[in-house]
Amino acid sequence: xxxxxxGLIRILQHNNISAFxxxxxxxxxxxxxxxxxxxxxxxxGDSLTLQQIGLVEALENGxxxxxNPWKEGNSIEDNIRLKRQSLTADVFVTGSNAITLDGKIxxxxxxxxxxxxxxxxxxKVIIVVGINKVVENLEAALARIREVAAPRNVQRHxxxxxxxxxxxxxVCSDCSSPWRICNKLVIIxxxxxNDRYRPRITVVIVxxxxxx
Length: 212
Ligand code: SF4
Description:
CATH class: Alpha Beta
CATH architecture: 3-Layer(aba) Sandwich
CATH topology: Rossmann fold
Number of domains: 1
Order of helices and strands: HEHEHHEHEEEHEEHHEE
Structural class: alpha/beta
Shape: globular
CATH superfamily: NagB/RpiA/CoA transferase-like
Radius of gyration: 16 Å
Bound molecules: iron/sulfur cluster
Strand content: 15-25%
Largest sheet: 6 strands, parallel
Number of helices: 8
Helix content: 25-40%
């Protein structure tokens, strides 16, 4: 782990957000599964990173009630119902668009289910990010979202029709597309840690490029 990542982990922990560095996808998968109790109800914010480390498959096949809104064959009604149920899950797992070296967890969302569950609801939130998601500051995080994450996410969703323009141009035009994927911008800076409320969020930083 380089000194910048070590510093980021110290800052996150200071902000009452648990943080780990792991070397690769296998270690990330083991680390996440180790903190999800058997029998837990697990909500899911759509994440290529979680698919890549094998977590989605492990949750589908493991001793959990896995609320996957995007499971093949789900209707749109299923999708919305599972997104709503995820807001009160025991554990919510997701990726992130960016994390800044000063500890800000930065995300945009089209529907809002992912950022809503990150903010409040599930007792535990686990966020897995590849090293490519770590950026210098908030300005770089927002640039990454507009110039990298959003265009790639638009390209990943073939059902977006008409697709937001950034999928073709690679540049944000602050569109009004019906499939605009950055309707909600959320920046998590810190968590409570007091007699009444315990911290909820764990960040797992993987020393490999993952996700979009
Ligand atoms: S506002 Fe539109 S064009 Fe800009 S990043 Fe979001 S979806 Fe893409």
